[in-house]
From TrEMBL:
Protein's UniProt name: Penicillin-binding protein 1A
Keywords assigned by UniProt, alphabetized: Antibiotic resistance, Carboxypeptidase, Cell inner membrane, Cell membrane, Cell shape, Cell wall biogenesis/degradation, Glycosyltransferase, Hydrolase, Membrane, Multifunctional enzyme, Peptidoglycan synthesis, Protease, Signal-anchor, Transferase, Transmembrane, Transmembrane helix
Lineage: Bacteria, Pseudomonadati, Pseudomonadota, Betaproteobacteria, Burkholderiales
Domain Penicillin-binding protein transpeptidase span(s) in chain numbering: 420-665
NCBIfam families recorded: PBP_1a_fam
Domain Glycosyl transferase family: 54-227
Major localization class: membrane
Domain of life: Bacteria
Compartments it resides in: Cell inner membrane
Sequence similarity: In the C-terminal section; belongs to the transpeptidase family.
Coiled-coil stretches noted in the UniProt entry, renumbered to this chain: none
EC number(s) from the headed UniProt entry: 2.4.99.28, 3.4.16.4
InterPro entries, per the entry: Beta-lactam/transpept-like, Glyco_trans_51, Glycosyltr_51/Transpeptidase, Lysozyme-like_dom_sf, PBP_transglycosylase, PCB_OB, PCN-bd_Tpept
Biochemical pathway: Cell wall biogenesis; peptidoglycan biosynthesis
């Protein structure tokens, strides 16, 4: 009987095996073709580069850098094999012992285990769903066999290491190395390789940004496996085990803060290539350089934070109840800080203890910091016993801290104000640096291109330029005295404008009027040449007529412009009268380097691009040099250069602060203001707010650059140190405006008026 039973079991087993073999044999010819593997062409993202080939942005559902097997470092391959498939080079696509071990484990009721080789994972990732069924597993095995017959082991491993998803939208280990460590794959350490190798199993669970503790636990296990398998020496193991990894947790994944530039480039490329933008592997080369962009970013951040330090402390961002148990407290703190990402060197922290003498806080990295002495000065009001509840710094408060380049910590706060900066080449308009706001991840609105704001006195040079074509000269005398206009003259209501400081100096030259930014002088100039003419003339510089109505308020910059537009306009004065259009992209190539499109800017020097007379540009430039030498921009003398020119701008009620300036080769525009316009402070001006940002950038951009003295164009004559058009020598043209005219009866009242006009 026993033999009969054994025979029945054996026969049944053989029959079942024959059925399985038959089914597999029938299914094998119907397996999908392997074209996607043998001719591997993954979706490649759009990449944005600086002019000096620094990666500044990457867009696409799959962030990926295709890297060939010969270029993948051995330590990375060993780390992956150690945890995923240490028998990869020995098996034929399926590791049967592993399958049997997993099956027995799963049958015993333990946590489900898999036993997929790297080849099986490739088969699953390319051709199969993620459902866990016997049918799918059978197809996975068949496909693994087929793949092993069609590709070499190195080809299979290459596909796997480029295709696998590793979190943070990163596909492949090369992209992951950049995203998590800011490194090229070839430069990673043993410890970093082990951390990356832990991601394929569960990219979310073992993500070092989101779950640093779990990621480190898995990394340590992989290092142990690498050591056990002889992939690394004992010395390498000990070093890697103790290495403190620097995980990139900030928003800037590319080593240079050019997020606004990258987004601008993406939009421009999408207009041309549509959906192919994100899959074709396009490479976009911009005009910015890393050095210029870094200088602009740091200058803007410094300028904004200098302003912020003059404001009152607004209190913690929020509060949490910290549990008493250590593990629960750590989890609560980690969860809350995830809602308050760091802004470069402005770091979020949660207060553990607080007193007027010392604050102890913990950051997202788990570092416990102590703040005392001068580091508490800014937030002193929040530590006082009588501080309002919503401003009180206490246990559980979410605060912002910074080291400010030193070793000691200070309490600070995120600014509410915004800013923008753009620098461009005056010769062809190539944008050298562009920062559209304080923090792209907090506010993606690009203030360089999208913020239409009143330019204030930064607009005055264009009115002065127009006047030179109407017979005025820098020596024309103009009365700096109060003036009033009725509603018909302004296009609105009666208007009694004032100088910024409510001081009036009587007759002065047009040159001095611009140097001292006298509103009365600018208004009288526009009144003389006609607001309509002034409006039409300024369109030569690229300003929109509809945004700058032909009323006398135009003399004070009451229209609207963007920093981008203003950069192009000031470039005209810098380059001798030629219109150049700021541009960002030099060329776009495909993944093979074939050029698909290339910029062809209109350069200065070609007469077809001339918009104002060279003499006009020279005279305005000479007056703008005086603004730097003697006027509202004397801070720029710190650059110790004689070839810089510019103009400050502060609008009505100190809502917008500007500085527009240049040397012969580069123009820069700095702006500061609130998105919802409000007063910056009665003593805040373009010279105090925007000019320091401009100086911060130019001190780096012009370092080592020779000073360029501008040649005097033909058609100008010099009489007693002042230049005139040859056809309008002294004694001709408009020699004076309203000189000797008595001011209005409201003069005394105007002198005592609140200082709230344009500067």
């Amino acid at each position: 009987m026993l033999l009969i039973a054994l025979g029945i079991i054996t026969g049944t087993g053989l029959a079942a095996l024959l059925i399985v073999v038959f089914a597999l044999a029938m299914a094998y010819p119907n397996l999908p073709a392997l074209d996607t593997l043998t001719d591997y062409r993954p979706k490649m993202p759009l990449r944005i580069f600086s002019a000096d080939n620094v990666l500044i942005g990457e867009f696409g559902e799959e962030r990926r850098t295709l890297v060939h097997i010969k270029d993948i470092p051995t330590v990375m391959k060993k780390a992956v094999l150690a945890i995923e498939d240490d028998n990869f080079y020995e098996h034929s696509g399926v590791y049967y012992k592993g399958i049997l071990r997993a099956a027995l484990h799963n049958a015993s009721g333990g946590a489900r285990q898999g036993a997929s080789t790297i080849t099986q994972q490739v088969a699953r990732n390319f051709f199969l769903s993620s459902e866990q069924t016997l049918k799918r597993k059978a197809y996975e095995i068949l496909l693994a066999w087929k793949i092993e017959k069609s590709l070499t082991k190195d080809q299979i491993l290459e596909v796997y290491m480029n295709q696998i998803y590793l979190g943070q939208r990163a596909y492949g280990f090369s992209s992951a190395a950049q995203i998590y460590f800011g490194k090229d794959l070839k430069d990673i350490s043993v410890a970093e390789a082990a951390m990356l190798a832990g991601l394929p199993k569960a990219p979310s669970a073992y993500n070092p940004v989101v779950n640093p503790k779990r990621a480190r636990t898995r990394q340590q296990y992989i290092l142990q496996r690498m050591h056990e398998l002889g992939y690394i020496t004992t010395a390498q193991y000990q070093t890697a085990k103790d290495e403190q990894l620097k995980i990139k947790t900030d928003s800037n994944e590319f080593g240079v803060h050019a997020e606004y530039v990258a987004e601008m480039a993406r939009q421009l490329v999408y207009e041309q290539f549509k959906e192919e933008t994100y899959t074709r592997g396009l490479n976009v080369f911009t005009t910015i350089t890393k050095a210029d962009q870094d200088a602009a970013y740091l200058a803007l951040r410094r300028g904004v934070m200098d302003y912020e330090r003059r404001q009152a402390y607004r209190g913690p961002k929020s509060y949490i109840d910290i549990p008493s148990k250590k593990e629960e407290a750590e989890e609560a703190i980690e969860t809350e800080l995830a809602e308050h990402p760091d802004s470069d060197d402005i770091i979020a922290a949660i207060v553990l203890q607080a007193s007027p003498q010392q604050v102890t806080a913990v950051t997202a990295s788990g570092e416990e910091i102590k703040i005392s002495g001068a580091g508490l000065a800014f937030a002193k009001a929040g530590l006082a016993e009588k501080a309002p509840a919503n401003r009180r710094i206490k246990r559980g408060a979410v605060i912002r801290v910074t080291q400010g380049g030193g070793t000691t910590w200070s309490i600070t706060q995120m600014p509410e104000i915004e800013s923008a900066f753009i620098a461009a080449d005056t010769r062809d308009g190539a944008i050298r640096a562009l920062v559209g706001g304080f923090d792209y991840n907090r506010n993606k609105f690009n203030h360089v291109t999208q913020a239409w704001r009143q330019p204030g006195s930064a607009f005055k040079p264009f009115i002065y330029s127009a006047s030179l074509e109407r017979g005025l000269s820098p020596s024309t005398l103009i009365n700096d005295a109060p003036i009033s206009f009725d509603a018909g003259q302004t296009g609105g209501q009666a208007w009694e404008p004032k100088n910024y400081d409510a001081k009036y100096e009587g007759p002065m030259s047009m040159r001095r009027g611009l140097t001292k930014s006298k509103n009365m002088v600018s208004i009288r100039i526009l009144h003389r040449i006609g607001a309509k003419y002034g409006q039409e003339y300024t369109t030569r510089f690229g300003f929109d007529a509809e945004k700058n109505p032909p009323y006398l308020t135009l003399a004070l910059g009451a229209g609207a412009t963007t920093p981008l537009q203003l950069a192009g306009a000031y470039a005209v004065f810098a380059n001798g009268g030629y219109r150049v259009s700021p541009y960002l992209i030099t060329k776009v190539t495909d993944s093979n380097g074939t050029i698909l499109s290339q910029a062809s800017p209109d350069p200065a020097g070609e007469e077809g691009n001339r918009v104002i007379d060279a003499r006009n540009a020279y005279l305005v430039d000479s007056m703008l040099k005086d603004v730097v030498r003697y006027g509202t921009a004397t801070k720029a003398l710190s650059l110790k250069r004689t070839d810089i020119s510019g103009k400050t701008g502060t609008t009505n009620d100190s809502i917008d602060a500007w500085f527009a300036g240049y040397n012969p080769n580069v123009v820069g525009i700095a702006w500061i203001g609130y998105d919802q316009p409000k007063n910056l402070g009665n003593k805040e001006t373009g010279g105090g707010l925007a000019l320091p940002i401009w100086i911060g950038y130019m001190s780096k951009a012009l370092k080592g650059e020779p000073i360029e003295e501008r040649p005097v164009p033909g058609g100008l004559i010099n009489v007693n140190g002042e230049y005139y058009y040859a056809e309008n020598p002294p004694g001709t043209g408009v020699q004076s405006i309203d000189v000797g005219v008595r001011s209005t009866p409201a003069e005394e009242a105007v002198k005592d008026a609140v200082k709230n006009e344009l500067f």
